[in-house]
Amino acid sequence: MKLLAGNWKMNNSLEEGADLMEAIVEGLSAQVVGDVRVVVAPPFLQLPQIVHGLWENAHIAVAAQNGHAAEGGAYTGEVSMAMLRDAEVDAVILGHSERRQFFGETDQDVADKVKAALKHQLIPIVCVGEVLAQRQAGTYLEDVWAQLHTALNGLSGDSLSDCVIAYEPIWAIGTGEVATPAQAQEMHAYLRAQLKATFGADDMSIVYGGSCKPSNAEEIFAQPDVDGGLIGGASLVADDFIALVKLLNQA
Ligand code: PEP
Question: Among 1, 97, 103, 161, which residue has the least CB neighbours within 10 Å?
Fold first, then answer.
C-alpha cells in the first residue's frame, strides 16, 4: 500500500491547522490521490476539528503523533489509545526519533504502544532510524533492525499487516539532508526481508522520512521497496504536501 503521512509536529494554532487542512483537502481530488493512502498527523488539540472536518472526505486519514500504552489512570499529561479511537482517529505515529531523543522513549516503550494501538484498532506508524555515527560505523542495517524487532516483538504476521513502518534516518530529519535513493532502498529492502523471515509478514508498507520534499521525492518514491513517505517540514506547506501525493501516485 502506498502511503503519505504528514507529521505536523507542534505547529499551528487551531485556525492555522484548519486552514492548512482545508488547503490540503481542496488540492486532493480523488484523481490526485489515486491509490495513495493520505494521512495527516496534527497535534492532539487539533485532532477533533480535523477528524470532524473530514467526514465528507474519504481520501484522508487522521493520525495522532503519540499515544500512551496504558488503558487509563494516573498518567498526567498523557492520552491513551482508547481516547484516540474514541475521537475517531485512525492511526498513531509511534517511536518518532524526537520522542526517543527528547522524551526518553525506548524500544520497549514503543513495543508496548504498538500493542496498545493495535488493541484499539489504530494503525501504528512505527518509526525507526539510525544516527549518523551508526551509519558511519557501518552498523546501520543491524541497528535499525534491532530497533524494529524489539518494537514488533510478540506480534503475529497478521497483526503486522495492520502496521506501517517509517524508516527515518535521524541525520536526515529536519536537517535538509536527505538519504540517497540507494540508501533508502537498501534499508527498506533489508527491513522487508527481515520482516518476512522473522514474522512471516510480506505485505507491510515501509515509508521513508527525512527532509523529503517535492524536489527530491520522485527518485526516492521510485525505489521498489519505498512505499511512500513520512513528511515533516514539507507537510506544513499545502502545495508541497499535495505535490508529494501526486508524485507518489505517479510512482
Ligand atoms: C519527521 O520528523 O518525521 C520528518 C521526516 O521531518 P522532515 O521531513 O522535516 O525531515
Answer: 103
Which residues contact ligand 1 via a Cβ below 6 A? 7, 168, 173-174, 209-212, 230-234
Q: Could you tell me how many residues make up the chain? A: 251
Q: How big is the CA angle at 154 (ends 152 and 159), to the nearest 5 degrees?
A: 70
Rg (CA), the chain: 17
Q: Ligand 1 centre from 73 Cα, in Å?
A: 32
Question: 176 phi and psi, to 5 degrees?
Answer: 85, -10
Residue to mutate (ligand 1; options 212, 236, 237; most atoms within 8 A of CB): 212
- Cα 205 to Cα 119: distance, rounded to the nearest angstrom: 20
Q: What is the pLDDT of residues 7-53, one digit of tens each?
A: 999 999 999 999 999 999 999 988 889 999 999 999 999 999 999 88
| Domain range annotation of the chain | 12-250
Domain at 12-250, CATH class:
alpha beta
Q: At what angle do helices 14-27 and 238-250 cross, to 10 degrees?
A: 30
> For the segment 103-155, what is each residue's pLDDT rounded down to a tens digit?
999 999 999 999 999 999 999 999 999 999 999 999 999 999 999 999 999 89
Which are the contacts of 54, defined by CB distance < 8 A and separation ≥ 6?
21, 25, 60, 62
Sign of CA dihedral 219, 225, 230, 232: negative
